[in-house]
Amino acid sequence: MTSSPSLAAGGLRRPPASPWLDELRATLKLSAPLVLINLAQHGLVASNAVLLGRLGAEPIAAGALATSLYLLLFIGGIGLTSSVAPLVAEAVGQGAEAAGGVRRTVRAGLWVGFLVTLALMPGLWFTEALLRLLHQEPAVARDAGAYMRVLQWWMVPALAFMVLKGALAALQRPGPPLAVSLVALPLNLALGAFFAFGPPDLGIVGVALGTVITEFLAIGALIAVIRLDPNLHRHRMFAQLWRLDSERLARVIRVGLPMGVAGIAEAGLFEAATVAMGTFGTLPLAAHAVTLQIAATCFMVPNGIGQAATVRVGRAYGAADRAGLRRAGAIALWLGFGFMVACAGLQLLAPRTLIGLFLNADAPGAADVFPVAAGFLIFSALFAISDGVQSVALGCLRGLQDTKVPMLIALFGYWGIGVPLGAALAWGAGMGGRGIWAGFCAGLLVVSVALVVRWRRLSTVRPRGSSAHPPAGRNRA
Known about the structure:
The chain is mainly alpha-helical. Helix content is 80%, strand content 1%. It has 17 helices and 2 strands.
């Protein structure tokens, strides 16, 4: 008689866990801190909106214009540096010498972030002139320009933070950036309130100054934690930072450039909408700003799930585990979809409560903003599901280092459908701001469906290594 497979020499053996449950646990374990990091980082923008809302409708409108333009360019930089996570994840999955691969990739990512900042900051200095050319109200353009001249310095430490966060996520060590981000959020709110309303009384400029100081302190703290943690310090992430590793730099850019373009395409859709909304006046622009903050806060959750999917899929891709990468993608997609369905319901059922989180009803002009923002939230609820699904699907494809076709999908969906349709409805059909939001819904729906279809095809037929470059020179310093 053969012994039962559940018996071992020491007694009963635990039955093997379901690989689907194992993957669900792993995805939740990684995505939970990444979601919290995203919420905390978005909280810097959201808390600024709260402070600006206390200053009145005009400051929040000016802050929306400046922040939207800043984020348009900053998200392009994030896309370029986001290639760090899948490249490090692939190296870990391959079981290659992780220390050298991590060091070279992080160094190249920091170089990319520095070069992007160097290229973009001079142009941001002339935000007021640009907004005047775009027919924004002079007073709003003036305040937005003053806000941007301080806020632009945020990009220097913020892109470096994104590089390190991506590397630590790929190493499945999101704890340090989470801890730093959770401390940075209340610090940003306190500093912003102090400089805006306290003895300095800098108003809108004080809000931006608080954010810049907070981010420099945050990147300093994260670097210190990495250097003091023995398990992280062994990767020597900051060794020879001055050395230009052209081979690894080229690979980071090759994978990251389409991601940056796709990010700019999506952010550009919202920037174009914000500028267009400003042509309808301060009231719809302020309502649009509040609605965007609510939508963006909800989006942080599927965005974190998508970042976890990049790591989980990337590790399975590096290990040539086709079944594993399919499981990772499927679980992430269902998690993102389920959460955004709940968010859509909340936006439809409790609009005034959500709006009240970002706008003081007693502030000048605020009472007129509430009904307009409530109308926009109906459209925000409609596109929330598509927005979450496309973010997770994009994360899955990044794990396969598939970035060029998703870039083309984003360009077509956002600018071939979303912008023209939104303009036609806003002006041609007389829907105003509601037409712009309807364009959002259509563009995001097309992008989300196309990305999911591509993921299903590639996760089934694509062999590992079809786009990965040989690990030549992996042991180089």
